[in-house]
Amino acid sequence: MNLNAKSMPNRNHVNDLKAQSTSPDSIIQTANIQSNTVNFSNQKKNILWVIIFIIVTILVIVTITASVTLNRKNRTRPTKLTIATTENTTTMAATTTIEPVLIPLDAINGTVIGVYNTYIGGLSSISTPGDRDDQYEETEPPNHACDGNVSTIYSTFSPCGRGDRQQKCGLNTGFYLQLQHGPILVNGLRICYAYTSFASDPYIVSLEGSNLSSEHLILGTSWTLIYNDTIELRGTSSTTTCGTVQIFPNTNHYSNYRFLVSRKVGISDSVRYSEVELYGSGFHL
Ligand SMILES: *[C@@H]1O[C@H](CO)[C@@H](O)[C@H](O)[C@H]1NC(C)=O
Ligand SMILES: *[C@@H]1O[C@H](CO)[C@@H](O)[C@H](O)[C@H]1NC(C)=O
Ligand SMILES: *[C@@H]1O[C@H](CO)[C@@H](O)[C@H](O)[C@H]1NC(C)=O
Ligand SMILES: *[C@@H]1O[C@H](CO)[C@@H](O)[C@H](O)[C@H]1NC(C)=O
Ligand SMILES: *[C@@H]1O[C@H](CO)[C@@H](O)[C@H](O)[C@H]1NC(C)=O
């Protein structure tokens, strides 16, 4: 304030003495200039303080913004990781949970052996083509159940003969075969029906596996039970050709399989079906 008060009149004085170039005047002029300089440097100081204040304010704002952003990023990062992990887990689950694959039931030498009066863990009684109570329909032999063609049917009468309509006809019959492919892990099964024979549809079926050679397969002791349960029933108005795949736990590979029907849907002279499909999760062609 004092400096300002002094400088105001001095400035006029400087203007008055502009023309003069004598040394005392010069001194006065210098003094005035100095005074102005002091005044100017004071303004500079104020500006400097303002600049410092602005810089500090900006620094504070930047620091706060940065920390908030970092916090947000830190909070976002684990979420992103979780999502990635979930994606990877899903991918891994998708690759480990392999869809059941249909196993081609190609038998060695094309030999599918029909059986009758045969029970789980019991001896196999080999059936022959014909219309007697120990036989299967000649035009509908056991290999039709394994040929991958839903138009061809396997039909068995035992313990009845053709035309004898009873609940028991065709029960405890089936077939066994030796897979050309060698030992395969089976954990899925599906039946494809015979065109319109609803009453002759299998209802309770079993699957057994064996690793023994063909001459031993007639013995019940050679077979290990893998599946023994109901299969999906179709409605009488259904046009469905095949049921749904029944998945079951199994960890054993077998090269021979025996399939038996122990109950059917209704009253008829036979048990009939077009396909028995076996599925394997770890199976690749
Ligand atoms: C996800 O799996 C891919 C491919 O296996 C791998 O490259 C990536 O690092 C995995 N990501 C995480 C987050 O594990
Ligand atoms: C397949 O046929 C060959 C030749 O006829 C015979 O030697 C072999 O024992 C048969 N194998 C089976 C499993 O029937
Ligand atoms: C399936 O069986 C039917 C009836 O025997 C036959 O006409 C048809 O050609 C077969 N299909 C195949 C692909 O073998
Ligand atoms: C197979 O299943 C049927 C029907 O549930 C049952 O009565 C029978 O005892 C079972 N047999 C074996 C050997 O588990
Ligand atoms: C059947 O034989 C195969 C091949 O030798 C083997 O890998 C598999 O474990 C055997 N299955 C059983 C139940 O022993």
From TrEMBL:
Region: Disordered, residue numbers: 1-21
Residues that span the membrane, as ranges: 47-70
Keywords recorded for this protein, A-Z: Membrane, Transmembrane, Transmembrane helix
Name this polypeptide is given: Uncharacterized protein
